[in-house]
Amino acid sequence: MYILYLIxxxxxxYYGAEFLVRGSSSIAVSFGVNKMVIGLTVVALxxxxxxxxxxxxxAITGSDGVSVGNIVGSNMANIxxxxxxxxxxxxxKAEKRTIKLDMPVLLLITLLFIFFCYDGLLTGYxxxxxxxxxxIYMLYIIKNSREISGEKKEASDPKSNKLTKNIMLSxxxxxxxxxxxxxTVQGGVEMGQLLGISDYVIGLTVIALGTSLPxxxxxxxxxxxxxxxxxxxxxxxxxMFNTAFVLGIVPIISPLKISEKIIGFDNWLMLGxxxxxxxxxxxxxxxxxxxxxxxxxxxxxxxxxxxxxxx
Length: 311
Prior knowledge:
Elements: H1 2-31, H2 35-60, H3 64-89, E1 92-93, H4 96-117, E2 121-122, H5 124-143, H6 163-194, H7 199-224, H8 228-253, E3 256-257, H9 260-284, E4 286-287, H10 289-308
Antiparallel strand pairs: 1-4, 2-3
Helix pairs in contact: 1-2, 1-6, 1-7, 2-3, 2-6, 2-7, 2-8, 3-7, 3-8, 3-9, 3-10, 4-5, 4-8, 4-9, 5-8, 6-7, 7-8
């Protein structure tokens, strides 16, 4: 049965990503909104919904390890695997604002999360602080989202009558991504249980990878369409949503216990790869194929370490 869930999930993820990228790109052009902003908001929110559903369910059912491990593992998969594959398809150009604003905010949110996890418990008060930082950032980029360019003029173009269609296309894409993530994770978990894999390994690998598949499909489709602003914006925005939005809301409902393995190793690795992404985009103003290959290598070593416990 898990094979059927996996196949159905992958199909929904692909077409959900296709519809979301097509619809959100058209909306950006219609309103003169920077496509990077669309990637950081609409696309990132849609692709982060599986993480939110999984983490919320885990908190309600008392599976705190799954809730937090899903986010940490997903964030690393987003940077190392998703951008690794996407950047290998073609170098990803980073906008000036990505380097000067988006990456520093993501780094700040990551540092705050690690600091709050240090005592082994993520409380509602701490999660509200994460949510507060995130909301300030979102309000800022939305306020400054309109480009001072000719794109504004396109809003009066007759083709703007297709706005409703593009909004519906984006909504269908988000629904497809959420359902696809759910079925893919369900199939992956059942497979892991049949193979006798522990919950900790399932949380950081199968579930994290499953909930990162929307980001993977969305970013790959965007890269193939040469929408590189959406590719990198989707990942940065998704990691912000995961850390500050998902873990900004879930602990309010139920405080989350953080395992020693996440505190002592996984959190620091997540911080390290976030810094590495910042260095790569700052140094060359883009993510090259060589750097993408390095990301894929690090992710492979991370998975091998979880399985064989080298560190």
